[in-house]
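Annual report, structural modelling task.

Input specification for the S-adenosylmethionine complex:
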Amino acid sequence: MTQPTSRPWYRTVAGLLPRQMRRRLLCLGRDLASIPARLKPGARPVPWSSLHDVGGGEFHTVGRAILNSLVTEAGLTPDDHVLDIGCGTGRVAFALADYLTAKGCYTGFDVASSGLAWMIRHLPPAAAPFRIVRADVFNTEYRQQSAARAAAYRFPVSSGSVDVAFATSVFTHLLPPDAENYLAEIGRSLRPGGRAYVTAFLMTPERLAPAQAGRAFVPFHPFGEVAHVGDVNVPEAMIAFDEAVFMGWVEKAGLVLSPPVKYGHWCGEAPAPGQEFQDILVLRKPV
Ligand SMILES: C[S@@+](CC[C@H](N)C(=O)[O-])C[C@H]1O[C@@H](n2cnc3c(N)ncnc32)[C@H](O)[C@@H]1O
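The model returned the following structure:
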């Protein structure tokens, strides 16, 4: 989620290439750049980006920063049941393994088997029980071997059982019906008073012109009535939702936004100190 502030050489070269090649080169660049840190004595395991790409920044540093935001912004406590939607390779799960007590518990799910396999192999022992589930649903970018739709997927938790749910850099990869269902599933999973921490790209009327003029990190193109995408052939690669539509889905899911959206600088705005890249929403299920 957090983007590195300086632009490494491989990003500049990658920007000139077709998307899939660009992605591979970015991963390779990140992996090569990470070798000195991997060789340090006592280094914690870090997945290769080429195995399963979850974005820039140092894996454990970003994971700890997200955990910190869950605590300060979504009121996470060590005894909570946490739901990690699209857990990837467990960037946040590593931090949660140290944080949760035996009274807490963790459920994480994702569509990509390679990332989950790495996560299961490398997660450190934890006081809390950890449950990791592969969601067998289709995603053009992450899982093409399934015919099941995320729009009909039921999260692997019982209704009203979750204290804090979170999805970092996941709504940016869901088609509109999938995103609507995932918000409804968050509403179902949370206990009354539970909170969700969600990141997304929200397209506001003010952002439309800069996004279409290519001032965002990728040029965004209209996709149906409610979204803009970086690549119309692979819409899940990068998707921004019309903010009003997204907030309508939030309301329909029985969730309330509080505090207001923390807008990120993904649309080419000059970043303010401490400003994140993606937009951040904290959603609450009323008591
Ligand atoms: C950019 S990664 C972020 C991973 C993780 N949330 C993190 O912050 O490290 C996006 C993740 O969403 C997962 N994903 C995509 N579609 C999904 C879906 N329908 N359900 C669950 N996970 C999904 C991908 O497999 C990938 O691991």
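Residues 1, 54-55, 86-88, 91, 110-112, 115, 135, 137, 139, 142, 150, 168-170, 173-174, 178 surround S-adenosylmethionine (CB under 6 Å).
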